[in-house]
């Protein structure tokens, strides 16, 4: 008797530069899907602070899988392939959504998925590459970020996010720039927090990157550097020669003052620091902080907060690699000083 052929598992890849709003767009899709539709999110985050993943776990996703401390379009290639196969075998979802780090080059990632298509006889299949654009900031960082240009150039759909924050003239300039990079790809405006209709994004059956010979050799992921700001109890140190921290004095774990937080965020130079995200203790609770290019929001952490029991602040700071390598202390010195935190 012939075995029943299960439907293939489509993969939708979301790319977009740091702070574009990829996680918010993905989470906005979920309430619009049928209740029995199973989606697993595979997330790639900078550093070891699982910020967006904590937000995702508070949603209706079937599962969230994480790849940390690197970019899965390059140094974590094997981990991505393994993670996709594990998701298939463990959950057999109706769809897998991959959310790339802000510096991921979509072509490299797509070629890996095309290879998995061949290995799995199309059981796993690339459905679409969706690029999320920050309407307020894209025109500024596209001049300095090859990655941002590549993400917009190699995509099945471009979602224009945060367009309500700019005037019509700015939006027209943005669309002109996007058309210069990628004329034929549809450009769709997100509906604020309501995101976009999943019927527009799902079922695309992408034709991009089917030819393995077309693989590019450029790697642009290396333009982002990450630092970690921490305030809390550190391990007791008896040997001061094994690290380069200025001291081993632990800060008492207490709430962070909201005014202090606002002042510290206002001191950041968005030319060199592009994104800050992580966890912060406010009003005797743990909050998820997301800051990008001068704007921020806070969301109450509803899940297990035991990982913050000895800390008040645990933030990942992302920015221009060359600026932060040249003067890492100067770029974040006032920010960390205002928060009484240290770079670890």
Question: Can you put this structure into words, describing what you see?
Answer:
The protein is of the alpha/beta class. Helix content is 29%, strand content 26%. The protein is built from 11 helices and 13 strands.
Question: Biggest sheet, open or closed, and with what strands and sense?
Answer: 7 strands, parallel
Q: How many H/I helices?
A: 11
Mean pLDDT reading = 81
Q: Supply the helix-strand structural class.
A: alpha/beta
Topology:
Elements lengths: L8 E7 L6 H8 L9 E7 L5 H7 L5 E6 L8 H15 L3 E5 L6 H14 L4 E11 L3 H4 L4 H8 L3 E5 L6 H14 L5 E3 L8 H4 L22 E9 L25 H9 L6 E10 L2 E8 L2 E6 L10 E10 H6 L1 H11 L3 E2 L1
Parallel strand pairs: 1-4, 1-5, 2-3, 2-4, 5-6, 6-7
Antiparallel strand pairs: 8-12, 8-13, 9-10, 9-12, 10-11
Helix pairs in contact: 9-11
Based on the model shown, name its key terms.
11 helices; globular; 6-stranded antiparallel β-sheet; 7-stranded parallel β-sheet; 344 residues; alpha/beta
Concise synopsis of the structure shown:
With 344 residues, the chain is an alpha/beta fold.
